[in-house]
């Protein structure tokens, strides 16, 4: 299912998400449930269910939500997961853990301990967690560390939300490919964006761009996903500026659909 990441249209109210996504050619919406997102987790009792209903009312689905959940001490964890799971939405993306100054092994153990308390809540609510890979100083940036954290948990409780652009930023030309292979057995969803390296003065930096115009090898990515019989949602992010933002989002969706038709003939 090709989904619009709701942060792409951050200024639109949640009750317009479904209609806008449908007009742009998407099949579903990945709703941000976090402070500053489309649904504030502190007021989920009203807004979250209404957001789900508004998307479904437009004929689309909500196969996943994106959250900032990274600690069991957060009082919003249970209401968010309960309402989402009982709304028959199967997946939620976890928040981020920074490495910080601790030793690597110690930090991974701390994150594993957090998950050991978050995942039983998710299981009780009938929803599966997904560990994201974010380049930089975050746990999961290289997938190997995320796999180290989640390997001891039931795959029905937690898996990967894999972003090939973030993996390539972190791991270069070959690293993303190996990281994706590692993630595939537990792959629950794919998050898509594209980028290229750009030099500004003496420093190199990441420039996000429309899908297919950057460094991500989408052909190889989709071939690998198809071979592995991946059937989860694909969430498209738009972290770049475009003169016609809606047109750019439509082109990104069409690009992904073309890749799907090529890799999964007869879909």
Report what the structure shows.
The protein has 267 residues and is of the alpha/beta class. The chain has a single domain, classed as TIM Barrel, CATH 3.20.20.150. The chain contains eight helices and ten strands. The strands form two sheets. It has an eight-stranded parallel beta barrel with strand order 1-2-3-4-5-6-7-10, surrounded by seven helices. Strands 8-9 form a two-stranded antiparallel ribbon. Helix 4 (104-125) crosses helix 5 (144-150). The model has no long low-confidence stretch (mean pLDDT 95).
SSE diagram, text form:
Elements: E1 2-5, H1 17-23, E2 28-33, H2 44-57, E3 61-67, H3 77-85, E4 91-93, H4 104-125, E5 128-132, H5 144-150, E6 158-162, H6 164-183, E7 187-192, E8 194-200, E9 203-209, H7 218-227, E10 234-236, H8 245-263
Parallel strand pairs: 1-2, 1-10, 2-3, 3-4, 4-5, 5-6, 6-7, 7-10
Antiparallel strand pairs: 8-9
Helix pairs in contact: 2-3, 3-4, 4-5
Task: Supply database-style keywords.
TIM Barrel, two-stranded antiparallel sheet, 8 helices, alpha/beta, single chain, 8-stranded parallel barrel, about 270 residues
